[in-house]
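Example 3.2
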Amino acid sequence: MGNLFSNAQRAQVLTEALPHIKRYTGKIVVVKYGGNAMVNEQIKQQVMEDIVLLWLIGVKIVLVHGGGPEISELMQKLGKKPEFVDGLRVTDKETVDIVQMVLAGKVNKTLVNLLEMKGGKAMGISGMDGCLIESQMKDPRLGYVGKITNINISPVEDLLEKGYIPVISTVGCDREGNAYNINGDTAAAYVAGALQAERLIMMTDIEGLLRDKDDPTTLIPNITVAEANALKASGVISGGMIPKIDCCIEAIEKGVQNVIIMDGRVPHSILMELLTDEGAGTMVTGGAR
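Structure, written as tokens:
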């Protein structure tokens, strides 16, 4: 009897997801996945399953990934000490080679392989392919850390048109052939904007935007750009949350419908966000509600 009940429950869940499925079928959703949200292997498997499930129901998913912890790990193995200024990795010539190896190589191909194993059709590209992410030096103190100057989105559009899940590593380039380490959140905001995506999902290692950063019950489920700017001015949004919120605002100003900051460590958080009424994390939108 219990089994029958669980099957009926499953059917009920699928029925309730139907309006959400209709809303997103054929739409572009960009998922930023990286850093500490990628560390747990079991969660990584579930994230890939969620992405393939969404792809199978007709959502055009673009996966943008970082890989900071894995870059730091390889640097230490090679005897280099990771250094950060204002949260950004100091990237000399040797470090940018490591960034390129880890992001465009190991991490990118691992994610592509996982998506394929789960039944998806994925293609990995870096921001250097097709000059996707054109960049210039952001600040000489940081070395080869890139500021995005232009996005050439057509390679991504071509992959979507052919039915692939594009998996983008955040390495940029300039016209002189230099490679740059690009902040993953910023790259995701620019890519989502260039695609005029329906939604950008930023998977992080926090629940979302909290009114009190030490109290998970103070989660702010919805916020407009104007409200976000006010909370920045009043100091509620501070520290490492400022660049995240700035990326959300950037994406919306570039034409993304809404942006979600959510906890990537929660199993199936993407499905909860896209296919249930409750959603997950904090949604940032453009206009007044």
